[in-house]
Amino acid sequence: MMLPFNFAASNKGADAGEKLISSVATTAIRALLSGADDLQVSIYCQPVSKLLQGAIDNFTMKSKGMLIKNQFRAESVRVDTDAIALDLGAVLGGKVRLMRPTEAIASVVLLEEDINRSFEAELVTKKLQGISLAEFEELDRPSETASFTGTRIELLDDNHIRLRTQITFEQSGETGEVAFTARMGVVEQRRLVLEEPVFEDDSPQAQKLGQIFVDQFNRMMDLDKFNLDGVILRIHRLRVRNRQLIFEGRAKINHFPEPRKR
Q1: Do 137 and 53 sit in the same domain of this protein?
Q2: The pTM is what?
Q3: Has residue 3 been placed in a domain?
Q4: What is the distance between the alpha carbons of residues 61 and 135, in angstroms, rounded to a whole number?
Q5: Start-to-end CA span in the chain (Å)
Q6: Is residue 128 domain-resident?
């Protein structure tokens, strides 16, 4: 295969090879996003001759203001892979194709306002609508469905949050408010859950309505439902600090995701 660079003693060829791969990867990643304030990709390879086989010791991506589907924003994202093997022919054709699966360390920082904005996204709002109340006999609304809107979260210390949301009984049009504090946790390294909720209104009906929201939140916040094609994410640590929600974990990358048609 004729390459558009050579590995001269000056390492200029190596620089060109690394820049080519970084450029192709940056373009491919941007194609998966709605936007990013800043996106940097760098690779490390020693000895540089390994680039001829598409072998890379480390791939690092750092992003600020990453926007997905025009609705989900992350303040910062960093991904550091283990050693990877690329199809060099695909790279020369402007694509990223892995020769075998790899793993990566990932960290994601979400701002409080970005989390609140995500509750307005269609993917989330439709999961908080049309919730049947038939199984909750104590509510005495067997034929009603409920929806939750205007959800707002405040990030507190010690991995706790304060949440307020409006409930609407869709058939009668009656409305009310649900408010509580809870601890954010991780189950099975993939599900974000609200634990130990303490409701502001301690009446039995208010607590039941609040628990309905908590249960629905816990069901929908499963990372396996949001994974990119070919990527499996697992959370090892969750922290709340300075009104930021910070995830640290690993990703198994079976193949590089293809951009979706828009």
Answers
A1: no
A2: 0.84
A3: no
A4: 47
A5: 34
A6: yes
Token code pair at residue 4: 């558009």
In this structure, the answer to whether residues 247 and 194 fall within a common structural domain is no
Q: Which domain holds residue 243?
A: 12-111+229-253
Q: Looking at the 3D structure of the chain, how many domains does it have? A: 2
Structure token pair of residue 21: 């791969």
Contacts of 189-192 with CB under 8 Å at 24 or more apart are: 189/234, 189/235, 189/236, 189/249, 190/222, 190/223, 190/224, 190/233, 190/234, 190/235, 191/218, 191/221, 191/222, 191/223, 192/218, 192/221, 192/223, 192/235, 192/238
Question: For the segment 207-256, what is each residue's pLDDT rounded down to a tens digit?
Answer: 989 999 999 999 988 888 766 678 889 999 999 988 999 999 999 998 88
Residues paired with 231 in a beta bridge: 253
Edge to edge, what strands does the sheet with 175-187 contain?
131-132, 145-155, 160-169, 175-187, 191-199
Q: Is residue 242 part of a domain?
A: yes
Tokens at residue 60, please? 């690092």
Helix (H) or strand (E) holding 75: strand 72-81
What residues form DSSP beta bridges with 250?
105, 234
